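Feature request, filed as a ticket because there's no other form

It would be nice if the structure record came with a short human-readable summary line next to the tokens. Right now we just get the raw output. Example of a typical job, pasted below so the devs can see what we mean:
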Amino acid sequence: MIIAKQVISSIIEEKKKNNKEPSIASFTEIQSVVIRSLKSEINELCKTGEIDKHKTLNGWAFTINIRNK
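Raw output as currently delivered:
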């Protein structure tokens, strides 16, 4: 599970480590981290068979795989 405070802290720490200013976390940067994490979690759930992925006209949709409940 993603914790907002942890995401913000990790972005700020990374900037401080690389001497980047300002050492703040923008909403866009936070969104980027959250989206990457969510995509990774969805991919893992698909691999384990816990969810099923379905192609739609505009992208992808997901359902819970009742066989693995």
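Something like this underneath would help us a lot:
The longest helix spans residues 27-48.
Strands lie at 51-55, 60-64.
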